[in-house]
Amino acid sequence: MRVTVSRKAHFNAAHRLYRKDWTDAQNEHVFGKCNNPNFHGHNYELIVSVTGKINPETGYVMDIKELADIIYEEVESRFDHKNLNLDVPEFQELNPTAENIVVVIWNKIRKRIAPGNDLEVVLYETPRNFVTYSGE
Ligand code: NI
Q: What is the per-residue pLDDT across 48-79, written as a single tens digit (0 to 9) for each?
């Protein structure tokens, strides 16, 4: 019997999508509004889910308070009110698309989750646009 425990979180951050090795026209064509040279912000929403067996002693898959603390330390404290391109080392050379952000977040949280439990992260860049990563 495996149960999924989920915690929501959010952070506000600025970014700009572009490739240094492309022309302005190419960047504009592919990245559109997200290519704005002066950056722009998103209200990112996050759903972090951990799936595993219920510990018969505690009745928990994992303590959700511990999961909340992990998300705060690994994601919110590092990304909230930051410019992802300029302030977050992982995106110095990596385009901060929702896809790349969700993989970075998953890798940070994964190392804090018990090896027998599975992890999935869903990242909303807008209320209608979201990406999912589970380490595949
Ligand atoms: Ni954007």
A: 999 999 999 999 999 999 999 999 999 999 99
Q: Please confirm, yes or no, whether 81 is among the known catalytic residues.
A: yes
Rounded Cα gap, residues 96 and 104, in angstroms: 10
Is 99 designated active site? Answer: no
Tokens of 70: 């992990």
The CATH architecture of the domain made up of 2-14+41-133 is 2-Layer Sandwich (3.30)
CA of 15 to the centre of ligand 1 (A): 6
> One-letter amino acid identity for 74?
E
**pTM (2 d.p.):** 0.95
2 Cα: distance to centroid of ligand 1 (angstroms): 36
Strands, E assignment, the chain: 2-15, 40-53, 82-83, 118-124, 130-133
Choice among 10, 76, 90, 125 that is catalytic: 125
